[in-house]
Amino acid sequence: MANINFRYSGAGDVILVKGGGTGTNFKKGDFVSLSNGTVVIGSSGLCSGIALNDDASGADIQIELLDPNGLYVVTFNGTTATNLIGDAMSITWTTTSQVASAYDSSNNDVYCVGLYDPAGTSGGRIIVRFHYRYFTGRTS
Fold first, then answer.
1. CA 64, 138, 128, 82: dihedral to nearest 10 degrees?
2. For the whole prediction, is pTM greater than 0.85?
3. Domain limits of the chain?
4. How many CB atoms lie within 10 A of CB 82?
5. 79-137: pLDDT as tens digits
6. What counts of helices (H) and strands (E) characterise the chain?
7. Number of alpha carbons in the 13 Å side-chain half-sphere of residue 116
8. Distance, CA of 49 to chain centre
């Protein structure tokens, strides 16, 4: 995947888990989740952390667990601008791209807290914090 997500602040907890087994399931920097004891690419509402290495045909994978107080850098699906700061956004989850999309009142995964790339950057990166509902399973 072309978009590399990473933790912006502090050090997170890292766990070691068996990879998905195909060698092409996910890449370093992808949001991933755990399924039946293995690591798979993240999907809507089911992300556990960020892969710290590529899937390597069943090899052990390091995952940095998401932290509700952590700040993360993600790619924005649009042009970065200072008016994004404070906006709630959703993450578009596909097997080829995981990017933050503009305000979505029905599915707010993250809040933009800053710009990582300068304003005006098309496909630029932003600094986000995951919404508390993401960790609790609550809808409001």
1. 170
2. no
3. 12-65, 72-136
4. 10
5. 888 888 888 888 776 666 677 777 666 667 888 999 999 988 888 889 998 887 666 65
6. 1, 11
7. 19
8. 7
